[in-house]
């Protein structure tokens, strides 16, 4: 009871003595002040009680934030209650991959380098949904989480960026190409063995700065990221898929939530782009069959052809580019069939690669 009295006294206006129902005994100046005080208290109480309806967890790089903003904007457009100020909060989480920048990803080891800490925040209830670049998401999901949503996929191709040449073929022998991706490294060296590929970590802006400073003569970046950052003016050339098969799920954004959170699952289902989800599922089935990691150059791309079928291309390679194995599949654009295509393609390449191929 004392607590209740204390709370009332905290928000009650000062006792100014008896007044009539019209407040005639209270000076007009004081009445105006009371109105302002009460209004201020009402605003403060509303602010204190207002809690974000959705907390989005994301990495803090400019690209990761651009993807979180895209997710936020789509949620606002689809649900009027989320369009209100403060309804959606973005929470930045630093991951292992963000903290260790002086080593190649392959040397750090493990899976989930860019997702583990975000998944932990999701399971602990510190965030409600997690926005990921799908190419960073391991083929297994942590128990207690689901990934029911993929946003429409961006361009899957890689961009060639150089101050000295218009294409990889124009680079002089011995030129340094910066890339942290073994997938890119193997395909570059397969076609251009006279080039040298060196480790090139950091976000998009960091890598372009290193290029400007002359650390390397060229680099490759995902065109999807450059588009989301409105930085396509930096692109020298776009590599055709035939020359540079993309990473599994490249250009796709995935959004996860807790498996027991029906409300968040409903929000996310309204944003899901099913064509993208099926393509990504096919590619990830291929990757899971190969049990791929950052130490293995693996590429794959599934897409809907003009006749409505699914076309899939898959590739595994040695990091030095001396061995590249490719395969392809075609079939109905439906979940079960596409999962089977991915698995079957993976089994074929495992068989062709032979023992020891993946023990780099």
UniProtKB/TrEMBL annotation:
UniProt cofactor(s): dipyrromethane
Gene Ontology, cellular component aspect: chloroplast
The enzyme's E.C. designation: 2.5.1.61
Top-level taxonomic group: Eukaryota
Keywords: Chlorophyll biosynthesis, Chloroplast, Plastid, Porphyrin biosynthesis, Transferase
GO biological process: chlorophyll biosynthetic process; heme biosynthetic process
Principal cellular location given in the protein's record: plastid
Name of the protein this chain belongs to: Porphobilinogen deaminase, chloroplastic
Species in which this protein is naturally found: Rhynchospora tenuis
Subcellular localization: Plastid, Chloroplast
Domain Porphobilinogen deaminase N-terminal: 54-265
UniProt key word Calcium: no
Native organism taxonomy: Eukaryota, Viridiplantae, Streptophyta, Embryophyta, Tracheophyta
């Amino acid at each position: 009871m004392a607590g209740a009295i204390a709370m009332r006294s905290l928000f009650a206006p000062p006792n100014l003595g008896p007044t009539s129902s019209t407040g005639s005994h209270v000076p007009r100046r004081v009445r105006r002040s009371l109105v302002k005080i009460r209004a201020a208290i009402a605003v403060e109480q509303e602010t204190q009680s207002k809690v974000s309806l959705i907390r989005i967890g994301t990495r803090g790089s400019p690209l990761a934030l651009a993807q979180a903003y895209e997710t936020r904007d789509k949620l606002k457009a689809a649900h009027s209650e989320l369009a209100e100020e403060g309804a959606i909060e973005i929470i930045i989480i630093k991951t292992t991959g963000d903290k260790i920048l002086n080593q190649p990803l392959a040397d750090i080891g493990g899976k989930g380098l860019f997702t583990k800490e975000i998944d932990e925040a999701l399971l602990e209830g510190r965030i409600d949904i997690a926005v990921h670049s799908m190419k960073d998401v391991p083929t297994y999901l942590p128990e207690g989480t689901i990934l029911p949503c993929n946003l429409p996929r961006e361009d899957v191709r890689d961009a060639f960026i150089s101050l000295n040449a218009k294409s990889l073929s124009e680079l002089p022998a011995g030129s340094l190409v910066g890339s942290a991706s073994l997938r890119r490294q193997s395909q570059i060296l397969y076609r251009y063995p006279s080039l040298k590929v060196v480790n090139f970590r950091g976000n998009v802006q960091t890598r372009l700065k290193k290029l400007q400073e002359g650390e390397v003569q060229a680099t490759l970046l995902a065109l999807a990221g450059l588009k989301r950052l409105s930085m396509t003016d930096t692109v020298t050339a776009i590599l055709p898929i035939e020359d540079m098969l993309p990473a599994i799920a490249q250009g796709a954004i995935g959004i996860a939530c807790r498996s027991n959170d029906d409300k968040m699952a409903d929000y996310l289902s309204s944003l899901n782009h099913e064509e993208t989800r099926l393509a990504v599922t096919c590619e990830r089935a291929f990757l899971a069959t190969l049990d791929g990691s950052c130490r293995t150059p693996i590429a794959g791309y599934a897409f809907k052809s003009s006749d409505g079928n699914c076309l899939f291309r898959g590739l595994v390679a040695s990091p030095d580019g001396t061995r590249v194995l490719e395969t392809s599949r075609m079939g109905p654009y439906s979940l079960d069939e596409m999962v089977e295509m991915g698995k079957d393609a993976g089994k074929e390449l495992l068989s062709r690669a032979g023992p020891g191929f993946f023990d780099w």
